[in-house]
Amino acid sequence: MNEDRNRKKFRNTDAVLDIHDRPSTGQWIGLSLQHLFTMFGATVLVPILVGIDPGIALVSSGLGTIVYLTTTKGKIPAYLGSSFAFIAAMQMLMKSDGYPAIAQGAMTTGAVYLIVSLIVGKFGSDWLDKILPPIVVGPVVMVIGLGLASNAANNAMYSDAAHTVYDFKYIAVALITLGLTIFYNMFFKGFLGLIPILLGIVSGYLVALLFGIIDLEPIKEAAWIAMPNFEVPFVQYQPKLYINAITTMAPIAFVTMTEHIGHLMVLNKLTKRNFFQEPGLSKTLMGDGAAQIVAGLVGGPPVTSYGENIGVLAITRVHSVFVIGGAAVFAVALGFVGKLSAIILSIPGPVISGISFVLFGVIAASGLKILIDNKVDFDKKKNLLIASVILVIGIGGLVFKLETFELSSMALATVLGIILNLILPETARSEE
User: Fold this and answer.
1) What Å distances lie between residue 300 and 43, 57, 235, 305, CA to CA?
2) pTM of the complete model
3) Per-residue pLDDT tens for 82-100?
């Protein structure tokens, strides 16, 4: 009882705004827009690659985040956006059966999350401390940040989707955006010091305009109000059983669960809390699963927590769930405002990359801090081997595929790290 009371009273003094701190109205809008712009590029990229309306993906990400915040009782500052893990499966299903099959697959993955959450609720999550010690957690968190580094670099260098046309203007815009973002972080204070990412995106956009790499025509042609293309069962289509969708997408749920746990590790470190205990892994999995089901019901792709937004939390030290909730509301509203959607959709790759160099790096540095804070001894061969395998496989992009099942490099690195930690002896024979 006393432990629960202490957890409720705890406030992270390192945070500018802690989890339950409410910003003023002006700050609230700026801070929420910062999260919105940060997640926008990745969230709309998934539906574009699959053939789903980007507007509905914005709506589903906002609704999914609200569902997640509600399920976890407003205790975890996490934003949920379109999941990249399901892209290949969704592309295949879109060609064969259309969106109804994707929707069924999304709801199936959500159901898998709910089932696992009930199991965790029944048997607890104490096992996590055994399979996820600092020597596994630290490198995994580093992989979450560094594993995306090549994408950021490619988008900063190449002007074509195939990454074959090197463009000096692109890398110039990316580096200027990076420099301005670092400047805002270091030298601005007060409210401006809380929104360096938003300022970096706006400044980078203006620089990109000067370099002539933004096409303004889609913005001019976009309608102010545009209804997203909702795909609601029994309204837009009559659902039926798609066995292929279930068998294709359900196994991927266990991959995204690994990413879910990895993101919770980072958030634990940033907020100085243990979300595996409070509100509990069962609640966080339930929230993620419910969000995926909601996304499937309205016509969006499956959603998952976003490392980009965790990066914003780390840099600004603003951990307020009110800010995350505000971003979710803006995302839903933006799905209906065609002109604003077109403006944000026009933000070029090098601007997002310039910001990502900071965001992804901060996440990776958080993993390094976990190792330092826990005084992990790298003179021990066991620790050295575990970290080496996780880092090289996770950052190198090794993927495990078996027919339609695919284990991403981050998930594979995590699984191998856990296995090595459990089976390797504490001391190598050469150390005895």
Assistant:
1) 10, 5, 15, 15
2) 0.74
3) 887 787 678 888 888 899 9
